Amino acid sequence: MPTPTQTRAYASPVDHTAYGHYGTGRLHLSPGWNRPIYPFQARITADGSSGFRAEPGRYHLYAAWVCPFAHRATIVRKLKGLEDVVSLSYVDDERDGRGWAFRERRGPDPVNGFTLLEQAYDATEKGYGGHISVPVLWDRQTGTIVSNNFPDITLDLAKQFDQWAGASVDLYPDALRPEINKLNAWIYHDVNTGVLRVARATTEDDRERTRHQVVATLERLDERLAEQRFLTGDTITEADVRLWVTLARFDTEYNRGHLISERELTDFEYLWPYARDLYQDPAFRETTQGLPTTWDAPAGRGR
Ligand SMILES: N[C@@H](CCC(=O)N[C@@H](CS)C(=O)NCC(=O)O)C(=O)O
């Protein structure tokens, strides 16, 4: 009998006629773009006090190459050197009404042999009818989702696995937490979801206002980087990871599709070398696909 890990089970091809588009009855965005509730919000802890102890081989990350929120988790996993500690697989790039699925393009689900990510949600909460989002952090021991709440996933990978991880890389140092939290909130609103709000603006006024907010924020970040290599100083933190996933998609996706900024990322004096600087790190480079070769040039500050 093949075990689930040997089975290469795949979903049938994307079919919008049969299954509709993902979202109906699932995606609820509040008018103010407050974050929807991501219902699985357990935490992994080094001492196990949360019920989910950090252990090698216990947890699996389901990600999507196309999703910037999942991308953060894959970057942090690699920055911390957790490739042999927390396993990783990718769902297909496209979805229909069934949500994220496993197909040949990105490979099978190596843990459970699921064909649809919905099965992971359903195994955790029978009859689950909410968002089927990535990233998902799965626990092999209980056979349930620990978390689909992206900010917690990166922080737990960054902080709770130091027994096996590159403890010298501290992405969330105590002394910088207030500053990182402030930056993260700002970046989430004005950049990460700012670009999405421009795309989905329903009036021209709204579009213009949001577009200017994104551009003004990029300009402020550019100024900040004139003074220092990373957002909080001379070491990478969680805030850099949060910003980078949107910068990496800015010219080729968001700005090309929705004309947010007259200046491309490559026109920003400090943001562009900063983005390239991070891309030279394998944790960023090897978790990213589709960037033009202009990103390959190593960047000194100010160049
Ligand atoms: N947007 C979420 C992060 C997760 C997310 O949006 N993931 C997307 C893919 S990039 C997804 O799977 N969305 C499906 C859903 O939320 O129903 C947040 O702001 O917290």
Automatic annotation (TrEMBL):
Signal peptide: none
Gene3D superfamilies: 1.20.1050.10, Glutaredoxin
Highest rank taxon of the organism: Bacteria
Domain GST C-terminal: 173-299
Swiss-Prot/TrEMBL keywords: Transferase
Single GO cellular component term: cytoplasm
Protein name: Glutathione S-transferase/putative glutathione S-transferase
Organism: Nonomuraea jiangxiensis
Organism phylogeny: Bacteria, Bacillati, Actinomycetota, Actinomycetes, Streptosporangiales
